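Extended Data, record HEPN domain-containing protein
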Amino acid sequence: MVNIALAKDYLQRARIRLEMLDTLTERKDYADVIRFSQEIVELCEKAILIKLGITPPKLHEVINVIIENIDKIPERHRKFFLNIKRDCKWLRSQRELAFYGAMDFIPLEDYTSAEA
């Protein structure tokens, strides 16, 4: 079942987070730029899956599910998803580290503008 209302909700929440990125960047809060960027990607990916009639798995990164169903995506957009796979996976790998940090990694100190 396609729940368009849920897909729209995900996209609206992604837009709100996107609007916040400029403020976070200005404040040099690169850790939260990375964290919010991952959330934006996750919400958009899950909205796409819903629009394709696929229930998104309860995972933070679902680009592989999109690629597994690439035949359901208009041909003109397929290359885009194949090209962003690595970046999506990198953002996912940074999700918890950007939020919690680690004994040897202080998010506000260790992330750079280049990474953000």
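Summary. The chain has one domain: 4-106.
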